[in-house]
Design a protein that fits this description.
Layout: E1 7-8, H1 9-18, H2 27-32, E2 43-44, H3 53-60, H4 66-91, H5 96-108, H6 110-113, H7 126-137, H8 144-157, H9 160-175, H10 182-208
Antiparallel strand pairs: 1-2
Helix pairs in contact: 4-5, 4-7, 7-8, 8-10, 9-10
Length: 209
């Protein structure tokens, strides 16, 4: 969005710490090193992960400020999680007050309340799309559009997102083999195969790059 491509100085600093073996350096040796200004080194994050969703964000940044856009998507994703939790409870015939109470418990739980203020990176988009996918996955009436659209965005996030959900779907199909109908098995098998194939393809690109 800034003309330099998908880059990160944070990623460069992490590489300096791990790949350049700065971590094991003795403290006394580190203290003797001269301090300098922050380097201008940047790393193309596509060398480590396949963030295809960055292309969509880059296109949207031509209209909106990139920081506002990213923070908005980030916060919106977490509140989508709360909305889906509430909706699942209401569709399960839970009264409004108990459903709101449980949703508030999710909101104040450290896994939610603390993680929303964590580091911004593309995998954060996995939260809303994964919960939307799981919502459509467990609906009694199969929603193919919801499943396939959310699955598409999950593939665009990074190679790790489809890999995790692909493995999850394989286990889901095996565990619920006798309780899900043939049509659902076929579509879930197609999505699981696509997830795993796309993840392995992306990993192969990273390995050879």
């Amino acid at each position: 969005a800034n003309g330099e491509g998908s880059v990160s100085r944070i990623h460069a600093a992490m590489n300096n710490f791990s790949r350049n073996k700065m971590g094991p350096t003795p403290a006394e040796k580190m203290c003797k090193k001269k301090l300098g200004k922050e380097g201008k080194e940047v790393n193309n994050v596509f060398e480590s992960h396949r963030y295809y969703i960055a292309y969509i964000i880059a296109a949207a940044s031509k209209v909106f400020d990139i920081k506002v856009l990213y923070y908005t998507f980030h916060v919106f994703g977490f509140f989508i999680l709360l909305y889906i939790v509430y909706r699942i409870l209401r569709e399960s015939d839970i009264d409004i007050f108990p459903a709101l109470l449980f949703t508030m418990l999710v909101f104040v739980h450290p896994a939610f309340s603390l993680s929303i203020s964590g580091q911004l990176y593309a995998e954060r988009f996995f939260i809303p799309f994964a919960i939307i996918f799981l919502y459509f996955l467990n609906k009694k009436d199969l929603s193919l559009i919801g499943l396939y659209v959310s699955a598409l965005f999950i593939c665009l996030i990074s190679e790790r997102a489809p890999l995790m959900l692909g493995i999850f779907l394989v286990g889901y199909i095996i565990l619920f083999w006798n309780s899900i109908d043939k049509k659902r098995k076929i579509h879930l098998s197609v999505i699981a195969s696509t997830f795993l194939t796309f993840a392995l393809y992306s990993l192969n690109i990273l390995r050879n790059s």
